């Protein structure tokens, strides 16, 4: 009997351009921190949304920044980025850049957490502020998470389960609504929330911050809620898109604009996962990566990258970043 060996060859992920097709999304920037230098700003770039390469010889790109970087392009064509010095810092700092290379401090927002309606006894904590520009209202939204219970001996998760997502609206990121508000009307711990609008729906991509158990299997996963209005009410979150113990999601459209790539971190700093869908309502599947077999790994990121955001950029912006910082193709 003759035995013929069979070798597994994973199919390529959808969303890439074919020969003769021009990409809708030409390039991507991943602004992030690293495991060894938590809270500081690093860059990686990609031209396909799947294979990422670090810039600046894997060194910081801007020493003055601290936070979980989140970047949005404003109506004036400038980029804006949120940060804070720590969760206990009362201020959210906003930075501005015309080229993603040179950043200047633009404004500071200090939310009055004690004035949040229907949210008694919030702790003075501001976690991972994120930015969204709503073209419908021509206003910015900043979201972040704030807890209302301290951890206690034997139950540190009490603190994390008490996280709730707050937001504030601004027309110019200089002046802000009087008080922050709760984004969701359901009683669930959420962190790392950001907003995207597709079609006539708003989507809140979030981390379910309840600890996973037999009776709460969705804990510490990435989920999505949906609304017809930026301000809600939002649907109850979807089934998990990621495995348990994932956080810091970030979302980009594929080069051909037809597929969504949703990345999330397996913490603390272990690796990144990737889920793929052709619409934000799903279904989603998890792509193969971090197996260290080239025919199985369909995406890769530089070693030790952690929390951040991915955004689409033009090829011109990509080339400017590579020229200025230099690219490390040996990740």
TrEMBL record:
InterPro entries: Glyco_hydro_beta-prop_sf. This is Arabinosidase.
